[in-house]
Amino acid sequence: MSTTxxxxxxxxxxxxxxxxxxxxxxxxxxxxxxxRFEDVDFxxxxxxxxxxxxxxxxxxxxxxxxxxxxxxxxxxxxAEYYTDEPSAQLRLPDRPExxxxxxxxxxxxxxxxxxxxxxxxxWHELETTLRPLATDISTLAxxxxxxxxxxxxxxxxxxxxxxxxxxxxxxRDHLPTGANPDLGxxxxxxxxxxxARHRHRRYT
Length: 204
Prior knowledge:
By secondary structure, the protein is an alpha+beta fold.
């Protein structure tokens, strides 16, 4: 296991909670399974520069045991995503155009990023509620990385050894106050032997 994780502890001076190594996701998920975006893929309401930069430079895994990325680009706002929704009874949150959909969790709830603040939330369609999921895009990526490592059989409850001391880093330590996502079972029932096949992939 690479010790490069030690660099993720400090806050990112460029405006995110974590300063993740540039190729952390590539090393864990495989280069061909991490999608990076271009500026043309972002809605105009995604104005949070640190989020835009992270999606361009680091990207997100296209699928993981707990999260599936929306692969069609450009990314859609929540308002755009439900444009063709046949049910007129669905009530969207206030200002749905500011919420950019990234994908969905294993429980089926959508994952969105606030285009202004960079906060990552879950959108519960049946309950028509938003709930906090991750402080920002860097903590979402770190959470997906941790879960994927755990599914791979690596014990990461105490894996960061720095200065001779071991620091425990359970997944939920990196979720914002009030976040309680249903991450589902980490193992079993998730066949990831083949990458998802979608149009419009864009990798670097």
